[in-house]
Amino acid sequence: MNATIAYITFRGMLGRRRALLLFMLPAVLLLLAVALRITGNNDLNISTIVLQRFALTTLLPLLALIAGTGVIAPEIDDGQIMYILTKPIPRPVILLTKLAVAIALVVAFAVVPTLVAGLILTGGTAGLAAGFTVGTLVGGVAYCAVFVVLAVASRNAVTIGLLYALVWETLIGNFAPGARSLSIQQWSLSVTDAVSSASTVTSEVAFGLAAVLLVVVSVLGATLAAVRLRTLSVASAE
């Protein structure tokens, strides 16, 4: 970790227009949770649907995409990354710092709002809030690792990330059972199912397999991103 790079990255992320989405998306989740609680439409089934389809399936991948690509892709696109690459800082340290910032943003704007929304909806009933919080956390780490490596490897990282999250996980995953085994969303849901005792939470991927795949994807993504950044020349960054 490098404190200076982390500070600059945080300032850049929270100062851009895209930062509005970081605040708006969790605000919608919290307002929805409050509205359902006030109107009494917060039984376990409805709460599970909200936390799964909005928090885990929609909010998490979008925020992770914004954070994962935003911490480094703009610097590569406009050439500012050259100023960092010329400093006597190991490139793996630069990459891991960027990844840590992305994860921190996901925790602040996806994981914490999911916990708060879950508590508003169900309190501590069946461990539903805790389950989705843990599921969102581990899924967020994996998503960030994937989207950071995409940002380092391709200038079309946002497009590729959207295709994965929206087309593969949401569309194909709903109609092709085999695709669910290659879905961060389903792995996260499996962790949620393991933590929560709610019968309304189910996953088609076994917990052991999901846990292993989440770790593998997170570590592999960070490693590939660090390797790619190490081979990125200042000339190519310009």
TrEMBL record:
Protein name: ABC transporter permease
Domain of life: Bacteria
Organism expressing this protein natively: Actinomadura alba
Transmembrane region(s): 53-73, 93-121, 127-150, 157-176, 205-227
Swiss-Prot/TrEMBL keywords: Membrane, Transmembrane, Transmembrane helix
Presence of the UniProt keyword Transmembrane helix in the record: yes
Translocase is among the record's keywords: no
